[in-house]
User: What shape does this take?
Amino acid sequence: MFDRKKITDLSHDRSTRNLIIFCIVVAVLFGVALVSGQLELAVENNTLKTADAEFQVHVLDVGQGDSILVVADGHAMLIDAGEESSGSTVVRYLQRQGIEKLDYAVATHPQSDHIGGFPAVLEAVKVGRIVEADYPAQMTPTGSIYKNFLAAVKQEGARFGVMTAGDTFSLGNAKVTVLAPEEDYAPEDLNNASLVLRVEYQETACILTGDMEEPEEQAILQSGAEISADLLKVGHHGSETSTSQAFLDAVDPQYAVISCGRENSYGHPAKGTLERIRAVAEKTYITANDGTVVYLFDADTGESRISVNGR
Assistant: This one.
């Protein structure tokens, strides 16, 4: 005979088991949702996007050369523009960033891997003021690259002049201080006549060095100027003649960025220089390996981070 009691008991057991399974599933889903929410919140809190950063320093990947875009509260300054062949690369990057006008265009020193791309930039973007270093007249280049640079400056019609140590100017709410060269400084070569800038925005700062080497570093140290910074754009592509231990210790950067080309013939960055930098800075980036490197700072939260190729 079919025992209905057993069927009833089995039905009760199944209902109980289903209820337990349902509760477990709900608990698991709730836990997943909670963790996901916490992770999402953590990502939101720790991921600073370019659009949210009032202060930005973009070290462009232009191969064996320099080009740095600084943006503060929507105001832009371009420091160097790489080789002539990099001009279009710099222009496209500015366009992608929505830069229609540069408040300042700065030529740290008149060598091709720093000023060669400026004619293309000056043709494509309006510039408020163009600045270069005050180097000795006998060091003025006579080649076509510098002549093309001067012709582009004249064509642009912007104010053009020199700056020396102690000069200051504003970029949005950022304060830009010229650290070198001193007005009476007699450089050994154009590298050591580089226009060196310290850009300060609220509680963060960066130092942008052109091709400065140890002699100019020593001049800055002896001047007693404030040179601590969160970000250091390493001098002269990380050559063995730049970034002395004394200068590194004084700057004490959290981040260091070296701009150089892949498999360049100069051996940049030098092994010894790289070892010194890595012993001081928390993170070191090389454009030859990492591509364009961007330092971002949020004025509201004080949060900062490095973005590499948009990541």
The first strand starts at residue 55 and ends at 59. The chain has two domains: 1-46, 51-308. Residues 228 and 251 are 4 Å apart (CA to CA).
